[in-house]
Amino acid sequence: MDLLGRTEEIILLAVWRLQDDAYGVSIRKELSRRTRNDWSLGAIYAPLHRLEQKGLVSTRLGDPGEKRGGRRTVLYSLTSKGKGALMDLKAVQDSLWTGLISLKPAR
Length: 107
Hints:
Blueprint: H1 6-18, H2 24-35, H3 41-53, E1 57-64, E2 72-78, H4 80-97
Antiparallel strand pairs: 1-2
Helix pairs in contact: 1-2, 1-3, 1-4
């Protein structure tokens, strides 16, 4: 099993969460909202490209929109291999967390 980096993992999760609305700007907004950090589009597109090369996401062109001057949006979706990678990551994390004493904030 090839484990993904944390950035790739959370981008995959965002794509899965957004489903048919997963494109660069919506992924950026979702990650910024969930992580409370500002994400640049470059920080999203580079991992998305790697994920596509690994066969974990696929792309398709959306309909052209007036807001985009007639340009088409590139939409991302998880492949079955991508879903499997997320399931593997969750199993590893669950295994590592199982049986640990709960974390309490230091005082």
